[in-house]
Amino acid sequence: ISGITYVSTIDSVTVNMLYAVTDGYAYGWDLDTGSPTTSLSSCTSSYSLVQDTKTSTGMLSYLSTSAKSLLLIASGSSDGGYGEVYVDPSDGSLDTFLDPGDSDISSISTSDQDEYESTIEQWATYRIFPITDAKPAADSYVLYASVIYPEYDGLWSYYNVTNSEWNRE
User: Which terminal Cβ of the chain has fewer Cβ within 10 Å, N or C?
Assistant: First the structure.
């Protein structure tokens, strides 16, 4: 297992879910029933989290706001960037894999996808941290990404309203 996270509440709905990622797949377990209830393979056949060239995974985190319910999966490799899995807020089941900026439910705006693809997606991203409390009042969340690349390593940030582009901190 490359990453694991526990989620107790999704958009005011109480869930008791454990999520894990490994080798490009995401899994969810309902801890109340003790059984694996969701994996992307239950939606389709072994739905891969990442494209063929991005099979390793790094840290797993969860972004939850009134409009977002996403697992964020750092690439953990030189393939770069991170992936997203939409989590159904009604029951915690895994729904759809997204590349950042693919749609309105993504962690970044669709208008910021090109900028993401020319920056963060190009570099090894080992951690991605969604912050929903200590942030500017106008923002719903802030994303911080730990990037390793000879010229650009360090902490990068994305503020969803006040500065909706990736910037090196």
Answer: C
